Amino acid sequence: MRAEWTKLRTTSGAAWLLAVTAIVSVGLSVAVKTPLIGVYAGQAPVAVLGVLVVSGEYSNGLIGTTLTAVPSRAAVLAAKATVVGTAVAGAASMLALAALMAGAAPHATARAVAYLTLISVLSVGTAAVVHDSAVAIGCVLGLLYVPPVVAPLVPHVVEKLAPMTASLPVLTSWAAGALLLGTRLLR
C-alpha cells in the first residue's frame, strides 16, 4: 500500500486527473445549477486515472519490479484499487460538499462519491485485464457512455445493466468482476 501511495503521489498526471475531476465535477454542477450533474463529466478523468495506475507500469516495464517486490498478484491489484479508490473518494468529496451546500440530499451526494470511486476500481480492473492504456480507456469509456446512447433503441435491460445508468450494486458487480478477472489474468 505504501508503495502504491508513493507511486500515485509522485506521478504528476495523477494529481492533475484528480484536480480535473474535482474542478469539472463542481464547475459543471455550479454552471448548470444542478448539484450532482458534474458526476457524469467527472467520471472520464477518474476512468483515465484508474487505467493509468495499472497500465502505466506495463508501458514502462515496472510491473516486473512491482510483482517481484510483492509476489501476490491479488495483493498488488487490491492495493492499487484501494489507493486509487481512496484518492478518487477524496476528490469526489469536494463535489459532495459543493452539492450539499447547493441543497442536494445527503444520500445523493454519498451515492455520487461511491459512484466515482467504483468507476475508478472498474478502471483498475479493466487495465489489469487488457494491459494497454488506450484499449482500457476505450473499454471503460465505451462501457460508460455507449449504453445510455443506445438504450432507447434496445430493451430496458441495457439501462439496468450498464454501469452509468444502473444501480450501485450493479456497478459494484462490474467493478468486482473486472478486479477478479484482472487478478486471474495477472497471475
Biggest β-sheet: count, sense, barrel? none
The total domain count is 1
Tell me the span between the first and last alpha carbons. Answer: 19 Å
User: For the CA atoms, what is the radius of gyration?
Assistant: 16 Å
Helix content: over 70%
Helix and strand content put the structural class at mainly alpha
Low-confidence stretches: none
| H/E element order | HHHHHHHHH
Mean pLDDT: 91
Secondary structure: number of strands: 0
Basic shape: globular
Strand coverage percent: under 5%
Q: How many helices in DSSP terms? A: 9
Protein name: Integral membrane protein
Keywords: Membrane, Transmembrane, Transmembrane helix
Explain what you see:
- By secondary structure, this protein is mainly α.
- It is 83% helix and 0% strand.
- It has one domain (2-186).
- It has helices spanning 2-10, 12-32, 38-59, 63-69, 73-101, 106-130, 133-150, 157-161, 168-186.
- The radius of gyration is 16 Å and the shape is globular.
- It starts with a helix and ends with a helix.
- The mean pLDDT is 91.
- Keywords: Membrane, Transmembrane, Transmembrane helix.
- This is Integral membrane protein.
